[in-house]
Write a structure and sequence with these properties.
heterodimer; A: 428 residues; alpha/beta; Four Helix Bundle (Hemerythrin (Met), subunit A); Rossmann fold; 3 domains; six-stranded antiparallel beta barrel; five-stranded parallel sheet; 11 strands; elongated; B: 120 residues; Flavocytochrome B2, Chain A, domain 1; six-stranded mixed sheet; 6 helices; 38% helix
Chain lengths: 428, 120
């Protein structure tokens, strides 16, 4: 997601700093507490690297927590996850330096001591824990970067990273014992991992909903209407929820949480979500039926918050139409708005008739629909037909290639980067 | 970040490999006589037999120490030091609380409990 909506730029910018500031604070506090005195340079470097890495690992766990209020504080779930990734990788690099610096410390004393410091055969279980933690992080990160792995396998390997963190913290605890800061780090790590596993992954904090209706607005896509069984989520247009569909009379859900943008919200808290068949789970969801229980987490995102009064340009590619249809259904247009809606062919164009009807009835709303086939659309031609382009706030939602093409073309036409907003849903 | 991960991991294993094979590529070191007090040598397997609080040997920096009589005087919780009885404890000796080394006074004190040189 790009810059936050325009009416609250200062607050949005401040939120963007919360995640790095939290990570930095934990890291600095850890290093400050453990800062070595009177040791050799290499041993001091090893200790600083270890504690900076430990602090960043704990921060990384904190940034992995999937909770709506925390996500809002951290500038959104996507930003939070981005810092989760950065902290994890930097922590890994620092932790690689830890044993190497210890070996170099031994080397400075006598070269044969370097390998003796590293050799697992010369060590015992407190140090084996450290090695096991480091190797788990290595394996977990190797699979994290294997973006072509099927999602389910990728996700299971991601748990290895959590195991690596636990082993690493156990290594520190065994060596140091009940030290106050270490106990605080362990508490934060335990709470973050516990929340993620129990509240998020097992869904203990999720809101129960039930599918009341399923429609097929386009080929390979459904729109499911969901009614709350208890308290409803306070979703707004442009937000997304994480949904895990259960079983029905003749339907067996995959039970995994996947993000779906809300396509409709009513006053009773009922939601509609659009699901396109993109993977095994979403393919199975094409057959979901009324009565199925759904667990929802969220809402997340602030894509269409505070649209302000500037004229709008919305660009939707395929299923990227969902936040815009939610906005039109909930509030209509309050400012001059042009929607460029791109799809491969007419059968893939969800809500086209509904959008055309809005365009006929609302003079503020203009629809430019275009069937672009398999290739990227003619962006220059499309933008040439949009008046007052430089005055508009631009919101983009669609495939990465489409976002990139439009962002480049808009920047070439003088649209400021701060006026371009998009969602990418890239959580891996 | 993927490239950074791959580069760092490869560099890490190359350095570990370099340390592991250092005996092959380092020039032969000039043998210097070890400081031997009693002239006796003990293997790590022998050290491992003395692993109780009442009979506690440790191998630290290629020397063997009998710390049985010292354990009651050690300032930490007993389980912290007892866990190292019968074992190679050089790294633990160098990285006590928060990774700090023992003091020079502790080094002098330790020397009083030395009983042998560790068999290479």
């Amino acid at each position: 997601m790009s810059a936050e909506p325009t009416s609250t730029p200062t607050r949005a910018a401040a939120h963007r700093l919360v995640a790095p500031a939290a990570a930095l604070s934990i890291t600095v506090a850890s290093v400050w507490w453990a800062f070595p005195q009177g040791l050799t340079a290499w041993r001091s470097a090893a200790i600083v690297a270890a504690w900076a890495g430990t602090g960043l690992l704990v921060a990384s766990l904190l940034l992995m927590v999937r909770e709506a209020h925390l996500a809002r504080l951290l500038g959104g779930l996507e930003l939070s996850y981005r810092w989760h990734h950065r902290c994890g990788v930097i922590a890994y690099l620092l932790l690689l330096c830890h044993p190497l610096a210890l070996a170099l410390d031994g080397w400075a004393e006598a070269p044969h001591l370097a390998w003796q410091t590293l050799d697992p055969r010369a060590q015992s279980w407190p140090l084996w824990l450290g090695w096991a933690g480091l190797l788990s992080l290595m394996l977990g990160l190797a699979t994290t970067f294997a973006v072509h792995l099927p999602y389910r396998r990728w996700r299971s390997f991601h748990f290895v990273l959590g195991g690596g963190v636990v082993l690493g913290l156990a290594h520190v605890y065994v060596l140091l014992g009940n030290e106050r800061l270490l106990l605080a780090l362990l508490l934060v790590a335990a709470l973050a991992l516990g929340w993620r596993l129990l509240a998020s992954d097992l869904g203990l904090a999720a809101h129960p909903y039930r599918v009341t209706q399923v429609e097929k607005p386009a080929a390979g896509m459904i729109e499911a209407s969901l009614a709350p069984c208890a308290a409803a989520l306070a979703a707004t247009p442009g937000q997304f929820v994480l949904a895990a569909f259960g079983d029905g009379a003749s339907y067996h859900g995959c039970g995994e949480y996947h993000p779906f943008t809300v396509s409709g919200i009513d006053r009773q808290g009922r939601l509609r979500v659009c699901i396109k068949a993109l993977g095994p789970c979403s393919q199975r969801l094409q057959d979901v039926e009324a009565g199925v229980l759904v667990r929802l987490e969220g809402p997340f995102g602030s894509f269409l918050d505070d649209l302000g009064c500037a004229p709008q340009l919305w660009v939707a590619g395929g299923i990227g139409i969902t936040p815009f249809i939610a906005q039109l259904r909930a509030q209509g247009c309050r400012q001059a708005t042009t929607l460029i809606y791109l799809y491969r062919q007419a059968s893939n164009a969800a809500f086209l008739e509904e959008l055309a009807a809005v365009a006929r009835e609302d003079p503020l709303f203009e629809l430019l629909a275009d069937a672009s086939g398999e290739a990227l659309p003619d962006v220059d031609r499309l933008l040439a037909s949009v008046s007052r382009l430089g005055e508009r706030q631009v919101h983009l939602c669609g495939p990465q290639a489409l976002l990139a093409a439009f962002t480049t073309a808009l920047r070439q036409r003088g649209v400021a980067a701060a006026a371009i907003h998009f969602e990418s849903f890239d959580f891996r | 970040m993927r490239r950074l991960f791959l580069f760092a991991s490869a560099a890490f294993w190359l350095l570990v490999l370099a340390f592991a094979t250092s005996q092959l590529w380092l020039p032969a070191a000039v043998e210097t006589p070890q400081p031997v007090a009693s002239g006796e040598f003990q293997a790590l397997s022998e050290v491992a037999r003395h692993k109780t609080p009442d009979d506690c040997w440790m191998a630290i920096n290629d020397q063997v120490y009998d710390l049985s009589n010292y354990l009651p005087d050690h300032p930490s919780e007993p389980e912290v030091i007892v866990a190292w009885c019968g074992r190679e404890a050089s790294e633990a000796y160098r990285t006590k609380m928060k990774g700090r080394a023992h003091s020079a006074r502790a080094d002098r004190l330790l020397a009083a409990y030395r009983i042998a040189t560790l068999t290479p």
